[in-house]
Amino acid sequence: MVVAANRVEHTEDRGSIDTIVSVTKRDMARVNELILSMAGSRVELIPEIANHLISSGGKRLRPMLTIATALAHGYDEGDAQVKLAASVEFMHTATLLHDDVVDESDLRRGKRTARTIWGNQASVLVGDYLLGQAFKMMVDVGSMTALSILSDASAIIAEGEVWQLAAAKRMTTSEADYLAVVDAKTAALFAAAAEVGPVIAGAGDEARAAMRRYGRSLGVSFQLIDDVLDYGGVAADLGKNTGDDFREGKITLPVILAYQAGDEDEKAFWRSAMEDGNNDDAALARALELIERHATLKTTIERARAFGAEAYEAAAGLPPSAARDALLDVVEFCISRIK
Amino acid sequence: MVVAANRVEHTEDRGSIDTIVSVTKRDMARVNELILSMAGSRVELIPEIANHLISSGGKRLRPMLTIATALAHGYDEGDAQVKLAASVEFMHTATLLHDDVVDESDLRRGKRTARTIWGNQASVLVGDYLLGQAFKMMVDVGSMTALSILSDASAIIAEGEVWQLAAAKRMTTSEADYLAVVDAKTAALFAAAAEVGPVIAGAGDEARAAMRRYGRSLGVSFQLIDDVLDYGGVAADLGKNTGDDFREGKITLPVILAYQAGDEDEKAFWRSAMEDGNNDDAALARALELIERHATLKTTIERARAFGAEAYEAAAGLPPSAARDALLDVVEFCISRIK
């Protein structure tokens, strides 16, 4: 644990997504083909909308996790990993389509969102279609265990979204509350994506639990770094602008920590900005100043590093292989996005 | 077929839903319990919204079909039928939640829709949650065949909805186009609900195909009668007002047939009403007059009877049992809603 934590702390300059891209390259080519084919339909609007998102330059980290964790457990043939990886990406895409409707977002990864081009209605329904197709692919694999893991994740993700909608727009949200939402909204799919790899490889319960822990911790770490990038840092690869979360009233960890550390004046500012929508450029400038004053980006990065260290440790126990190295490098990549 | 058709034609006064309610009573009590429990969540908003719809007086015809077709094939123990029936109802409820968002509907079964009380966002996400819970229950049953049937239905329903959104708002929609949408949007879930009964009972392919045909034809018949009721007839049990479809610009069979039979003036009226939204009370009065002039409710009822006869025939081949009689009576009930 100490070793792992130290390693994470000292490798900001070397973490790279290239290792996992390279290790999963052969299978990801098949995943991408399958995605295109399963996003097809006699109803033209479906591939039109699906491909808008699918081709919008996401890194496809989640399906790569499925491929890499399958490889790391010796599953190197067949097509179960390809179908499950495509399912995972469809679940993610469906979530994004619905998220953009719920958040009324106009931009994602620097491109107009599907809902601004084709409308909320089509975004909801195409999301439903992709989810249906995801389940069809899982059924096709024929592993009841994998189905159980992924259907659990599906319900947990939606539950987390409703929770966030219902309660998380209040500045009284605690760090624990927020981490519970991140756990459901983001980490649950990372965890499921990483766990189904060993499942189809026929690995035992311990291996499954380790990969689940890996995916979950990686997911939380990933989200916290995203939160930090939204208030600064180098975010070119995210297609996000500084302050997007702020303007959408999304309460994230840097804000929660700044609120908690603030005096009464500052607390009133945060409530007005996040709860009542007083979030113009001047308000963003003040928000950045308060975040700087209380060094909450630094604290958030520390939290992210701690989760990263857990993920690192979970994968470090794997037998040596290129896939294991790729899984370890992904952890470092997530953290090293912060310059 | 002739016998079946004749029987359907002459029994408008006796079709009743009471038989299937009585036959499925024991299991439906368990289905209702399971529904309440699976609609639960630590996030209070979820049961609040789910129960609004679940307790809004729907007949629960779809889950009753699963119970009755399982019973008709000798499955009388265990809980697979209960879990699958609850899954079917959740899939239906999720579809209604999303439908009301997509159609911007304010009323359903005479009650305010969830979206008008809790908003579109919560309706989308709670629908997603119920769909996830539906898949969890299916996985719990452990039948890959049942999972395959229901996940197929899930994708087909969404595909049908997108199709309707994209193309079916034009008056050039043909009867065949419309029936294809009904087949996907409504009949696919009826078909799946009826098919999984024999599947868990371990019945053979022929029995499965017959029940699938039964559910599908019943579903089309059911929808066409709904379409008729929207332009008149006795609709007390539907919570719909005459002209709801008209005001929402939903092009249904009575309208398609009236358009096709109309002269240029009438065609222009329909285009203006359905495509451009000129659908005030005066327009509705004219629509009713044209529907009457071309007797398109009568023609639609004839179509519904023909599908009903197919459903009747498919179930008539079952060995005699109370469940078989219940399935036959449901067909007559659907048609006999027209006085």
Automatic annotation (TrEMBL), chains A, B:
It comes from the Bacteria. PROSITE patterns: POLYPRENYL_SYNTHASE_1, POLYPRENYL_SYNTHASE_2. Gene3D superfamilies: Farnesyl Diphosphate Synthase (1.10.600.10). It holds the Pfam family polyprenyl_synt. Its cofactor is Mg(2+). InterPro entries: Isoprenoid_synthase_dom_sf (IPR008949), Polyprenyl_synt (IPR000092), Polyprenyl_synt_CS (IPR033749). Keywords: Magnesium, Metal-binding, Transferase. Belongs to the FPP/GGPP synthase family. This is Polyprenyl synthetase family protein. It comes from Fulvimarina uroteuthidis.
